Amino acid sequence: MKKYDIVVVGGGPAGSAAAWQAATSGASVLCVDKARFPRDKPCGDGLTPRALGLLEGMGLSAELERFPVVEYLKIRGSSSWQVRWPDRPGLPNFARVARRLEFDELLLTHAAGAGAEVRQSCEAIAPIRTGDLVTGIEVRTARSTTERIRADIVIAADGAYSPMKKALGLESRISGPVGVAVRAEMPSNRPHDPSFEIHMPLRFDRRYIPGYGWVFPLEDGRINVGAGYLTTFRQWRDINLVGMLGDFMKSLPPEWQLPEIAELRKARAVQAWRLPMGFTAWPPWRPGLLLAGDAVGAIKPTNGAGISKALQSGLDASECAVAALAAGGPHDLSGYERALRRRWGLQYGLARGAFRAVGHPRPISLAVRALDHAPIRRLAIRAGFGRDALRDYSDGPDRIPAAVPGPTVRDAG
Ligand SMILES: Cc1cc2nc3c(=O)[nH]c(=O)nc-3n(C[C@H](O)[C@H](O)[C@H](O)COP(=O)(O)OP(=O)(O)OC[C@H]3O[C@@H](n4cnc5c(N)ncnc54)[C@H](O)[C@@H]3O)c2cc1C
Would you write out the chain's pLDDT as a tens digit for each of its 413 residues? Predict the structure, then answer.
């Protein structure tokens, strides 16, 4: 039976970052993914400045140049405003969009280039355990044979549905909010606009729901359009996700000439997925096992950004794994728990509390109405982006194109 220092399950942003970091530190590392790359992942394809900073740290600056730059964040709703990302040390003041088909393959290839062994079409079907200690994984290969692979430490970076977490029956002491979102990539006549456009609020049955719609620019006039909301909304199961996307698309300017939702569905361009946020697997380790990215619920609850969190938690998990192996063994991986708590513990804890309230339409409508008032909006921007962001802040329909009406979501059956 083959043995590695570290086996990473999943070759998305969390798994590739973890594999890259482990290989760069000199560990023997295997990364398995059940998919064959290039593979897609339902996503808005937005890379925040923080994600770009981490990718640059991984030596990918030159490769990132090919992905379109996004300069502004535009909020459209009952009030409309736009802001530029602030100057922050070590981070660019812009974002990018990268189709996951291309981006994830780039990351996985980068991990392989650093020395990680990569096996695609290789599905982890069960953890191997010796008592409480995870000591490897059992995989099903492309030829449908099974194989056992030993590892000192396994990093589960197997995404929002984390089969590893499920197979181990892990209970979580913390339960952050879970979102659901749907997106489609499509052609459009929209003039190129280097901005992430966020449309809020969404409504269901005339009530506000905690979520937003987005339009992100890709190349050649193509756009990524999507919508998502938190399942803290009591009636979330009554909402038809695809119907919601269709209604949102209808609310966008007709001159963009977007395709019909039925057409996109037929072409299988409409995909939905979960977003576990604010930590949904805690502690994020067990003897011999670390969880990273969506598998640990690392997505930022306030905006749904998960790529930077997947990268960061993957890097942290590997760093901790390598340190633990050097210090004596895989039994105590609590350094990782401390690292995640230091990074996001307070922020995610506050968000978990706030989002419990956000399941109710009333606090959402109060928050949305509060943002209609310029002084409160300015305070919110300052809190979210820092004082400098207000230098590039513009407000109101005379400064940016008029807002399109917020979509009304109805159950489309
Ligand atoms: C609709 C939508 C829009 C989003 N938009 C954005 C955005 O614009 N910007 C942003 O920052 N974040 C966004 N997110 C969040 C972001 O997509 C995720 O947080 C991110 O992909 C998490 O990365 P990951 O590596 O943890 O998991 P994933 O990217 O899901 O990768 C997990 C990998 O594990 C593999 N895998 C699963 N099971 C097994 C198994 N048993 N054996 C082997 N391999 C396995 C999968 O094939 C996959 O490659 C969005 C999410 C959704 C749903």
Answer: 789 999 999 999 999 999 999 999 999 999 999 999 999 999 999 999 999 999 999 999 999 999 999 998 998 877 788 888 888 899 999 999 999 999 999 999 999 999 999 999 999 999 999 999 999 999 999 888 999 999 999 999 999 999 999 999 999 999 999 999 999 999 999 998 999 999 988 888 778 888 899 999 998 889 999 999 988 887 888 899 999 999 999 999 999 999 999 999 999 999 999 999 999 999 999 999 999 999 999 999 988 999 999 999 999 999 999 999 999 899 999 999 999 999 999 999 999 988 877 666 677 667 777 777 777 877 877 776 666 666 666 665 434 443 333 444 433 33
Architecture category of domain 178-276+373-409 in CATH: 2-Layer Sandwich (3.30)
- Residue 353 tokens read as 């509390």
Q: pTM for the complete prediction? A: 0.93
| Residue from 42, 100, 46 nearest 73 by CA | 46
Ligand 1: atom nearest CA of 293 is 26
Q: Are 256 and 382 in contact (CB under 8 A)?
A: no
For the CA of 16, the nearest atom of ligand 1: 25
- CATH 3.30.9 region(s) of the chain? 178-276+373-409
Residue 108 alpha carbon to ligand 1 centre in Å: 13
Smallest CA separation from ligand 1 atom 33, residue: 10
Helix (H) or strand (E) holding 267: none
Between vectors from CA 385 to CA 382 and to CA 387, what angle results, nearest 5°?
45
Superfamily of domain 3-45+99-175+277-356: FAD/NAD(P)-binding domain (3.50.50.60)
Instruction: Provide CB contacts within 8 A for 299, sequence distance 6+.
Output: 179, 275, 276, 277, 278, 305, 306, 309
Ligand 1 geometric centre to CA of 329 (Å)? 29
CATH 3.50.50.60 range(s) for the chain read 3-45+99-175+277-356
